[in-house]
Amino acid sequence: KHSPRQGRARQIFLLTDGEISNVNEVIDLCRSIATSTRIFSFGLGHSPSRSLVKGLARATNGRFVFIPPNTSVDVHVGEQLQKALQSCITNIKVKWNLATDITSAPTKMPPVYANDRLIAYALANDPT
Questions:
Q1: Which SUPFAM superfamilies does the annotation name (predicted)?
Q2: What is the C-alpha to C-alpha distance for residues 106 and 118, in angstroms, rounded to an integer?
Q3: Which fold has domain 1-85?
Q4: What does the pLDDT look like over 104-114, one tens digit per residue?
Protein backbone atom coordinates (compact mmCIF):
# COMPACT_ATOMS: atom_id res chain seq x y z
CA LYS A 1 0.00 0.00 0.00
CA HIS A 2 2.84 2.40 0.77
CA SER A 3 5.34 3.68 -1.76
CA PRO A 4 9.02 3.37 -0.89
CA ARG A 5 10.88 6.43 0.38
CA GLN A 6 11.95 9.07 -2.11
CA GLY A 7 14.97 7.87 -4.09
CA ARG A 8 14.39 4.22 -3.15
CA ALA A 9 12.82 1.27 -4.95
CA ARG A 10 11.01 -1.73 -3.51
CA GLN A 11 12.43 -5.21 -4.20
CA ILE A 12 10.06 -8.20 -4.02
CA PHE A 13 11.11 -11.84 -4.15
CA LEU A 14 8.24 -14.10 -5.25
CA LEU A 15 8.56 -17.88 -5.12
CA THR A 16 5.79 -19.97 -6.71
CA ASP A 17 5.36 -23.66 -7.42
CA GLY A 18 2.03 -23.84 -9.20
CA GLU A 19 -0.51 -22.45 -11.61
CA ILE A 20 -2.83 -19.54 -10.89
CA SER A 21 -6.01 -18.61 -12.70
CA ASN A 22 -5.65 -14.80 -12.86
CA VAL A 23 -2.18 -14.27 -14.33
CA ASN A 24 -3.14 -11.21 -16.37
CA GLU A 25 -4.75 -9.42 -13.42
CA VAL A 26 -1.70 -10.05 -11.21
CA ILE A 27 0.71 -8.83 -13.90
CA ASP A 28 -1.43 -5.73 -14.54
CA LEU A 29 -1.46 -4.91 -10.82
CA CYS A 30 2.31 -5.27 -10.61
CA ARG A 31 2.83 -3.25 -13.80
CA SER A 32 0.97 -0.39 -12.09
CA ILE A 33 3.69 -0.23 -9.38
CA ALA A 34 6.65 -0.79 -11.72
CA THR A 35 7.88 2.78 -11.31
CA SER A 36 8.80 2.02 -7.68
CA THR A 37 9.00 -1.77 -7.49
CA ARG A 38 11.06 -4.54 -9.02
CA ILE A 39 9.99 -8.19 -8.71
CA PHE A 40 12.36 -11.13 -8.72
CA SER A 41 10.28 -14.21 -9.47
CA PHE A 42 11.26 -17.83 -8.99
CA GLY A 43 9.43 -20.79 -10.52
CA LEU A 44 9.92 -23.87 -8.36
CA GLY A 45 9.38 -27.52 -9.16
CA HIS A 46 7.66 -29.28 -12.04
CA SER A 47 4.84 -26.93 -13.02
CA PRO A 48 5.14 -23.30 -11.98
CA SER A 49 3.17 -20.76 -13.98
CA ARG A 50 5.71 -19.79 -16.61
CA SER A 51 3.62 -16.86 -17.81
CA LEU A 52 3.35 -15.50 -14.24
CA VAL A 53 7.04 -15.96 -13.38
CA LYS A 54 8.28 -14.36 -16.61
CA GLY A 55 5.52 -11.76 -16.82
CA LEU A 56 6.04 -10.33 -13.33
CA ALA A 57 9.77 -9.94 -13.83
CA ARG A 58 9.39 -8.38 -17.27
CA ALA A 59 6.59 -6.01 -16.22
CA THR A 60 8.64 -4.64 -13.31
CA ASN A 61 12.21 -4.70 -14.73
CA GLY A 62 13.02 -7.58 -12.41
CA ARG A 63 14.57 -10.94 -13.14
CA PHE A 64 13.19 -14.47 -13.23
CA VAL A 65 14.60 -17.95 -12.84
CA PHE A 66 13.15 -21.45 -12.98
CA ILE A 67 14.54 -23.84 -10.40
CA PRO A 68 14.15 -27.53 -11.31
CA PRO A 69 13.00 -30.10 -8.75
CA ASN A 70 15.65 -31.42 -6.32
CA THR A 71 17.83 -28.35 -6.89
CA SER A 72 19.13 -26.07 -4.16
CA VAL A 73 17.19 -22.80 -4.06
CA ASP A 74 20.00 -21.05 -2.13
CA VAL A 75 22.31 -20.48 -5.09
CA HIS A 76 19.58 -19.01 -7.30
CA VAL A 77 18.20 -16.76 -4.58
CA GLY A 78 21.73 -15.59 -3.72
CA GLU A 79 22.42 -14.61 -7.33
CA GLN A 80 19.19 -12.64 -7.54
CA LEU A 81 19.83 -11.03 -4.16
CA GLN A 82 23.12 -9.65 -5.47
CA LYS A 83 21.20 -7.99 -8.31
CA ALA A 84 18.52 -6.69 -5.95
CA LEU A 85 21.11 -5.02 -3.72
CA GLN A 86 22.43 -2.83 -6.54
CA SER A 87 21.70 0.84 -6.21
CA CYS A 88 19.42 2.39 -8.79
CA ILE A 89 18.47 5.72 -10.29
CA THR A 90 14.89 6.78 -9.59
CA ASN A 91 12.63 9.73 -10.44
CA ILE A 92 14.04 10.01 -13.95
CA LYS A 93 12.65 12.86 -16.02
CA VAL A 94 13.25 13.37 -19.73
CA LYS A 95 12.97 16.90 -21.11
CA TRP A 96 12.53 17.14 -24.85
CA ASN A 97 13.77 20.47 -26.21
CA LEU A 98 11.52 20.57 -29.25
CA ALA A 99 9.24 23.33 -30.49
CA THR A 100 6.18 21.08 -30.68
CA ASP A 101 3.91 19.20 -28.30
CA ILE A 102 5.48 15.94 -27.13
CA THR A 103 4.01 12.84 -25.56
CA SER A 104 6.65 10.72 -23.84
CA ALA A 105 6.52 6.97 -23.58
CA PRO A 106 6.69 5.64 -20.98
CA THR A 107 4.91 8.42 -19.12
CA LYS A 108 6.54 7.40 -15.80
CA MET A 109 10.10 6.17 -15.92
CA PRO A 110 10.98 3.00 -14.01
CA PRO A 111 14.05 2.71 -11.77
CA VAL A 112 17.25 1.97 -13.70
CA TYR A 113 19.84 -0.46 -12.31
CA ALA A 114 23.43 -1.24 -13.28
CA ASN A 115 23.63 -2.81 -16.75
CA ASP A 116 19.96 -2.03 -17.47
CA ARG A 117 18.87 0.13 -20.36
CA LEU A 118 16.05 2.60 -20.51
CA ILE A 119 14.39 3.44 -23.79
CA ALA A 120 12.19 6.53 -23.98
CA TYR A 121 10.23 7.69 -26.99
CA ALA A 122 8.99 11.14 -27.94
CA LEU A 123 5.80 11.19 -29.95
CA ALA A 124 5.72 14.55 -31.69
CA ASN A 125 2.48 16.15 -32.79
CA ASP A 126 4.08 17.73 -35.86
CA PRO A 127 3.55 16.48 -39.44
CA THR A 128 7.01 17.67 -40.55
A1: vWA-like (SSF53300)
A2: 10
A3: Rossmann fold (3.40.50)
A4: 888 878 777 77
